[in-house]
Specification:
- The protein has 146 residues and is α/β, with parallel strands linked by helices.
- It has one domain (2-139): 3-Layer(aba) Sandwich (Rossmann fold).
- It has six helices and five strands; from the N terminus they run H-E-H-E-E-H-E-H-H-E-H.
- The longest helix is centred in the last third of the chain and has 17 residues, at 99-115.
- It is globular, with a radius of gyration of 14 Å.
- 32% of the residues are buried.
């Protein structure tokens, strides 16, 4: 998935938020730096790390979907101009939440994004959470397979 994530970030303009559900911010930032992605235009929400993270990183538990949704929406309000949201490994949320909670989270995020001209790109590996993917497909303008 890494090449697709890097490609998506390169194709997006403006400033954005990267919600990392399967790699900590430090690892993701290093990966993006190595691929010459300007990480200064990305605010990271780290849902993986359990220890101290950098000051410019928000750490939220993947069990706290309301907090995560609130943080994403709040940060989007602060960004002027073109903006984007990337959610990496969406199906990871199923480890910590039930399918309906995750679908509600995605609906909340995509509704906000639609009303506020935010481009949302979510990545998810095919997993046992395919029922979730079937529930949330309709929230996105475009869905791509492998």
């Amino acid at each position: 998935m890494q090449p697709r994530i890097v490609g998506a970030i390169r194709s997006l303009g403006g400033v954005g938020i990267y919600v990392s559900l399967n790699k900590n911010q430090k690892r993701m930032k290093k990966l993006l730096d190595e691929r010459k992605i300007d990480v200064k235009k990305i605010f990271f929400i780290d849902c993986v790390s359990s220890g101290k993270v950098e000051e410019d990183v928000l750490q939220i538990s993947p069990t706290q979907l309301n907090d995560l949704s609130y943080a994403v929406n709040s940060f989007m309000k602060e960004i002027l101009g073109e903006k984007f949201l990337i959610i990496d490994a969406l199906s990871v949320l199923l480890i910590y939440n039930n399918e309906n909670q995750v679908a509600g989270f995605v609906r909340n995020i995509t509704e906000y994004a639609s009303k506020n001209d935010v481009e949302v790109v979510a990545f998810s590996a095919k997993t046992k959470g395919e029922e979730l993917l079937n529930k949330i497909f309709s929230f996105f303008d475009e869905v791509k397979g492998k």
